[in-house]
Amino acid sequence: MSKKVAIVCNGAEPKNLYPTFVLASSAVASGDEVILFFTPGAAPALKKGELEKIKSKGMPDMKELVEGVENLGGRLLLCELALEAKDLKKEELRDGVEIVGATSFMADINDAQITFSF
Amino acid sequence: MATHTLDTLGLKCPQPILKVAAKAKELQPGDILEVIADCHSFPKDIEAWCSRTGKTLLVCADEGGGKYKAQIQF
After folding, report:
1. Which superfamily is assigned to A4-117 in CATH?
2. Is residue B39 annotated as a catalytic residue, yes or no?
3. Chain A positions touching chain B (beta carbons under 8 Å)
4. Alpha-carbon distance A110 to A81, whole Å?
5. pTM of the prediction?
6. CB 3.0-4.6 Å disulfide test: which of A28, A90, B47, B70 passes with B60?
7. Chain A residues lying within 8 Å of B39, measured CB to CB
């Protein structure tokens, strides 16, 4: 049975991004519906090309994990507060990122069976 | 029925499973996918993936030298 998985990412460092994308890619690969929510602290990672720069010794290729999540239907949501808080413009964000408010995110994941926060 | 092969040597968890999931879209029911991997967690991961997605894991053999070969029936 496929599940609905919600993962909140709170920072733009490898320690935040690796668990987020390792678990998200594993879940989408197994047929789960996956929603990732990036809080303002994690927002810089969603600027075009930033995730592809993440590297860490002994860890899998971040670019492939992100592509896996995107290609298998995972959704990347950015907290709308991040735009002003982090001086970001929509055009600077990677393609496919949805800008949402807290209430719609909470409505989206109301029936999620699995949640994580990193 | 066709047999497909997938080489995931050198890829770390969960990349081999991601490759399998991407490849799965090309396969028809009855096809067999043969996967070569050297990721430590691969035997348990592929077993879990098959269980979650309703595929049949025919065999996951230890080929020695840290390599595994799995056959999955779609």
Report:
1. DsrEFH-like (3.40.1260.10)
2. no
3. 2, 22, 25-26, 28-31, 58-61, 64-65, 68, 71-72
4. 21
5. 0.94
6. B70
7. none
